[in-house]
Amino acid sequence: MSAPEDWASARRTVHAAGWRAQLPPVAVPLADADGLTLAAPLAPVTDLPAFPTASVDGFALRGRGPWRVHGQVLAGSVPAPLAADGTGVEIATGAMVPEGTEAILRVEHATRSGDLVDGTPKSEREWRVPGEEAHAGEPLLPVGTPVTPGVIGLAASCGLDALQVRPAPRAAMLIFGDELLTAGPPADGRIRDSLGPSIPAYLRRLGVTCENPVAPIQDTLGAHVAALRAALDGGADLICTTGGTMHGPVDHLHPALAELGAQYVVNTVAVRPGFPMLVAAVPHGGRTRFVAGLPGNPQSAVVALVSLVIPLLAGLTGRPEPVLPRVTLGEPVPGRGDFTHLALVRVDPVDGLARPVSHVGSAMLRGLAGARGFAVIPPGATGRAGDAVELVEVP
Ligand SMILES: Nc1nc2c(c(=O)[nH]1)N[C@H]1C(S)=C(S)[C@@H](COP(=O)(O)OP(=O)(O)OC[C@H]3O[C@@H](n4cnc5c(N)ncnc54)[C@H](O)[C@@H]3O)O[C@H]1N2
Ligand code: MOO
């Protein structure tokens, strides 16, 4: 077995490997772009607003009052200029302001008799001027920005119909372990596969297109290699496997990777739980694909997902390496010697402090199901109440 790699540096290594293999950009209609990643800066086609735009309902006026009002300007039309002092038009919020306008008088500040209007307009301008929000071509959001509903709305207001984005990575999910049942209660030495139903759900939350898992795959080297080949031929950018990361009698992942000509990006990480996790790169079909080997112990598999798969996906989609938020511990959390300890915590909604949860054995999911994420206790350290530590959130 190779020496385990430091947890933080393993994250940097997989991000860099994903970055080098970034998925080629595509143009995607706005309505389909949520969750993808900008591959070009977002910039407006015109000034924003594109024309002087009334902010209130009232009267657009020229010169001194009282003003003779002739006609109406509604949003969506091009008005004639105000040609003479002492004249005006009724104007609606959102309408283009006529050339020659010197003030807009709000309807609630106006007195009207017949076609004459009088009142005192506010001293501040009651319309938006072109370029007030942005100028044509001005970069508003950089490459690597995750597309959110807010970004989609901004893009539409900028006059864009599509966005240049990195597409969603495609994942396949392979479950190893002859002891696994896909339905019914555990019994007679057999247990339920808890990762086949849950890891694809996490992946989808991470913006990945994930097929239904292939489960369980027979505990033979031939079946492992065949399943990995089928996933590569199916076009997967990322293949997540569970189990078989160690070197027990039926752990075939390492020999299967060797047979495929895969190169380790990271092979075992100095973290508890989860240390036999790995990421390997496989050249296939003219580009690099990745295999993420998640350990079989269920909590360890999720640790591997948040530790390695999330930074790998960030790299693949052209996003920066994830920056971890910090939380303050409300109780002590022990360290794990030379290893990083990822300790499941919940974050109290009232005092905002992170406290360890119970039932956190690496074979258990009970603690994980109610936890916000993993507090990171670095090698050689111990978490004391009041310490601000990094938090890896569970997706
Ligand atoms: N001699 C040693 N043995 C083990 C060590 C060690 O250091 N020396 N480390 C343990 C650790 S830590 C982990 S984690 C596991 C990792 O093992 P594998 O990735 O090879 O996983 P398996 O042996 O296939 O399974 C381990 C465990 O998890 C259960 N399992 C597997 N898949 C699923 C699934 N989809 N759903 C639910 N449970 C699953 C499986 O039945 C085993 O109980 O190795 C330790 N051993
Ligand atoms: O590292 Mo194992 O993943 O402790 O259960």
From TrEMBL:
It holds the Pfam family MoeA_C. It catalyses: adenylyl-molybdopterin + molybdate = Mo-molybdopterin + AMP + H(+). Its EC number is 2.10.1.1. Keywords: Magnesium, Metal-binding, Molybdenum, Molybdenum cofactor biosynthesis, Transferase. GO terms for molecular function: metal ion binding; molybdopterin molybdotransferase activity. The keyword Transferase applies. InterPro entries: MoaB/Mog-like_dom_sf (IPR036425), MoaB/Mog_dom (IPR001453), MoeA-like (IPR038987), MoeA_C_domain_IV (IPR005111), MoeA_C_domain_IV_sf (IPR036688), MoeA_linker/N (IPR005110), MoeA_linker/N_sf (IPR036135). This is Molybdopterin molybdenumtransferase.
